[in-house]
Amino acid sequence: MFGLSLPRSRRRTTALASAFGLTVAAAALWSGLGAAQPAHAAGLPAPDHIVVVVMENHAYNQVIGSSSAPYINSLKAGGAVLTQSYGITHPSQPNYLQLFSGSHQGVTGDSCYTPGFSSAPNLASELIAAGKTWASYNEGLPSQGSTTCSSGRYARKHNPWFAFSNVPTGTARTMTQFPTDYTTLPKVSFVVPDLCNDMHDCSVGTGDTWIKNKLKGYADWARTHNSLLVVTFDEDNRLAGNRIPTVLYGQPVIPGSSTTTTYNHYDMLRTLEGLAGLTSHAGNAATAKDITGIWAS
Question: How many CB atoms are closer than 10 A to CB 67?
Fold first, then answer.
């Protein structure tokens, strides 16, 4: 009538196992290690170094397939192209902030703001919090960490890290500090040419030649050293629905691949976070999607 009773030692073991299982399950849910997280990790590679180059104000068809951009198109041929990549707004400055932090942080124009006005999460602050390395390389920057608005062909509006109090200004380096020993590069770095070499004031050919001269060595090295080069643009020329060129090159990428999925700066930010091994997502990157379909196994 009372059924069989387990020995006391068995009852204790069963109870402990049950309690332990519930604790593990609860901890997994709390830390975000549920079913979705392994899929995210499995869908992205883990490059040792990521270099992102941001160019200016040109539409997809002005660069991809253009005889004026032979080097960028060689990166496309040996790497991957996002055929439906988009800026988010106009003018330039909000797009840089959106790419870097998932929000324009209230900046909707190109005016010079007070440095360090925001403490919002961003790609650099996330990397630093996770114990990973970060730097930017800014052509024409008068000196490492300078917060000047402009100097010659240098414009701070293209350097969003200066908006954030949680990003040390010293991580903003001059382009002359870009290393020749690529193993010394940070985990993630951004490269921003000046107003001529980013194609803002000068031609597509000028910018294409600059990328070849400054970054071909890194690109060639990345192809055999588990590293990645991303070349993208802030916005189009206001004539193509903000469709921009975005090319990825390096060992983690399937050569000659492409995707027709629509992506924007928030998706790129989320992907950069994932590629760097981050589990946090800044601003609108939290609801964005990872770039897929171009990664080598």
Answer: 8
